[in-house]
Design goal:
It contains one helix and 25 strands. It is mainly β. The termini are far apart.
Amino acid sequence: MERTAVVFVLLSFCFTSLALECREVPGKLKQLDVGNGQMFGVSFSNQVYTLYSSGWILVPGSLKHVSVGPAGVWGVGSNDYIYKLVGGDWVIVPGLLKQVDAGGMISPAGVNMNDDVFCLNGGQGSSWINILGKLKYYSCGPYSCWGVNSADDIFIMKDVTPTSCAGSLVWQHIPGALSMIEVSTDGKVFGVNSIGDIFERDGVSMNNPAGSGWHQVQHPQKVKHVSYDLGHLWLINADNSIMDCTE
């Protein structure tokens, strides 16, 4: 059974590789996110930065995870408190999450320390909606949300809309195995597996949000984190260096 499972996971991915052209960006980060033409990241001392053409700008505050997208700029602190950037200040939002995502059209989403999944309908108020299921990482795009659980299984939640952040409430399992996954503002889906390889989901569209398969994106170094926006795939390598890549 174990051998069969391994073969199944391997066959779930297409290993036709596409090479990236990358440039290294000065600095080191433990996590970053790009969306709406903006880029934010956090350092190993939980300092928050945003990137402009002139370089990194320190943003006052302390976060362990940050996300930027149509829902705004959101983050979580070391105590799992949730914050939203409003007028240059971090405003605390009721609730506790270990990871938050601002990629939804209006509503942020995320997971807590118990891997429970939540979204905030409309991005306002204090009533987070608990979506049944367990995920360690959750990311949303314009019409669906994707997540991975503690076993690296991959799931998609369809029918996510500005007025219904919980979507269809039916998880669809997607073949493959990833340790983290990110959905871009335009719906592209990228992920990293447990050994640091990068994969992109093929065929994703509004009519087919689950797509049709995975292909591996070639990169000479192992990767810990990915995020995509406006034709650029941003990477954090295993050595914590930052790369800005295009195909």
